[in-house]
Amino acid sequence: MTSHSSVPGVGPFRSERTVRDEAPQFVLPLVVRIERAQPPARTDALETAARAVLTLLGDERSTGDGEWAEAVRGWEDARIRKVVRRARGTEWRRAEALPGITVTGRSAEVRVFPPVPLDGWPKDLARLQVSGTELDDPEPPAGADPAAPVLWLNPGLTMTAGKSMAQAGHGAQLAWWALSDEARTAWRKAGHPLAVRTADPARWAELTGTGLPLVRDAGFTEIAPGTTVAVEGGEQFAPLPRGGRP
Predict the structure, then answer these.
(1) 2: pLDDT confidence band, cut at 50, 70 and 90?
(2) What are phi and psi of 41, to 5 degrees?
């Protein structure tokens, strides 16, 4: 696997133009199932999207000589892009028929697909809506489990659920890259436990100033370039820096 730095300001998520932009560009498609009568909870959708990215990265088809490995390597060597689209009913069934992996949360279903060229989406995915994906939490999310990592969202940003899902996926990917093979295996076998939460404004500066892996969005959609996610390790899984977390 190509090595990428998770040091703040360095790596595939930074905003300034780099050699990555000269490489062929790929995108990782994710589709969230949103039925009219039973939409998923927002936080569960974000966490399920993050786990979907991790599931694809750890799948044997994505490594070595696997059938998706070449596409994954090309995607990782370029600008890391993820796009979340939404589907329901027949659209969802068509998406499920394409090669990919469906990950299920408490209320959310997210299907992740191997990377595709930026202008080469399969027609059954290209026709799906991407803008305006919005979800709500019926009640505030519970406190995060200290055993698992937390992907902290920037409290100063307003993002749609789709954009936030992509950012959570970026954060999970940074955590994955920072781990040893042994730590990845333990996390995968446990089902990739993690939490996505919005940071308290008073603590955001601490989270972004203590050496945690940071996602810096390139600003292609919705928001200006800048830091969107800080990745904090857990006591048991994804043993990364903890940023003063108790």
Answers:
(1) very low
(2) -70, 145
pLDDT on residue 204: 94
pTM of structure = 0.89
Question: Residue 18 has what pLDDT?
Answer: 56
The 3-class SS string of the chain reads CCCCCCCCCCCCCCCCCCHHHHCCCEEEEEEEECCCCCCCCHHHHHHHHHHHHHHHHHCHHHCCCCCCHHHHHHHHHCCCCEEEEEECHHHHHHHHCCCCEEEECCCCEEEECCCEECCCCCHHHHCCECCCCCCCCCCCCCCCCCCCCEEEECCCCCCCHHHHHHHHHHHHHHHHHHCCHHHHHHHHHCCCCCEEEECCHHHHHHHHCCCCCEEEECCCCCCCCEEEEEEECCCCCCCCCCCCCC
Residue of higher predicted confidence among 79 and 99: 99
Query: CA dist 157 to 87, 107, 164, Å?
Result: 25, 25, 10
**Residue 45 · residue 161 · CB < 8 Å:** yes
Unique residue bearing structure tokens 């992996």: 101
Does residue 150 contact residue 194 with C-beta atoms inside 8 Å?
yes
Question: What are the tens digits of pLDDT across the range 104-117?
Answer: 999 999 999 999 99
Tokens of 15: 């905003």
Which residues are registered as beta bridge partners of 117? 26
